[in-house]
Amino acid sequence: xxxxxxxxxxxxxxxxxxxxxxxxxxxxxxxxxxxxxxxxxxxxxxxxxxxxxxxxxxxxxxxxxxxxxxxxxxxxxxxxxxxxxxxxxxxxxxxxxxxxxxxxxxxxxxx
Length: 111
Known about the structure:
Blueprint (H helix, E strand, L loop, with lengths): L9 E11 L7 E11 L3 H10 L1 H8 E5 L13 H7 L3 H15 L8
Antiparallel strand pairs: 1-2, 2-3
C-alpha cells in the first residue's frame, strides 16, 4: 500500500480499560470500546503533554463507539460525555495507552 500524506488524519483504534473487579478482590476486569483518534505530530504531542492529560485527550480523542451508560444505552461522544470520563484515571490511562500503541505501529489484540 502506498503512503498517503493527508491532514487531518483520523483513525479508529481499540481501547481496553482495566478496572478493579467488584467481585474478586485484587483482580481486574477489562472493558473495551473503540476510539477515533487524531494523529498529531511529535512537536504537537509534546506540547499537549506539557499542558496536561486532559488537554491531550480533548484534542486527540475525536469520537468513540461502544461506550454505554449505567442503563446500557449507547453514550454518544461529545464534550459533556468526555468531561464525565476525564476524572477517572482508568479511562485516561487506557485511552493514552491505546494512542501510544497506535503511534508505535503495534497491532492490537481484539478486546
